[in-house]
């Protein structure tokens, strides 16, 4: 049996959508740095003239991301910030074309350290204010754990309140998969 080629996982769908929006020279945000895979992807997208600003509250995430970027010789044009994504407005002062979120916990990290609904919603609000017209926010929602279920419900409740005259909000689900697979929320600023 062959594996899926296009609809593989929420993070790959996010990257595909982001690739239609981000151009070389853009400024973008990785709101949940994790192990640096999205940071690296965004760095490749913005090229040498763009900028990636990445956030995480865990020192381990920053170390992992720095190593990954260095292994690809792409540590330049990336700012790694050891702070919560809810404080992004303290570090980002220009419009951005895209913001990526992967909610939940650091893969291969401490599963007790997770994103929280209150700070995530604050971060989404701040990301929306920084987003340029036709910019995109992707939010991979991992809800296969108790805290993730709570965060999912609150993030979805928030997203449904966004003014349809200002934003398009799309939810992409793998509806035939078991064990609460992650889904993707995409917000476009009109």
Automatic annotation (TrEMBL):
This is Uncharacterized protein. Pfam families: rRNA_methylase. Gene3D superfamilies: Vaccinia Virus protein VP39. It comes from Thermotalea metallivorans. The lineage of its organism: Bacteria, Bacillati, Bacillota, Clostridia, Peptostreptococcales. InterPro entries: MnmM_MeTrfase, SAM-dependent_MTases_sf. Transmembrane segments: none annotated.
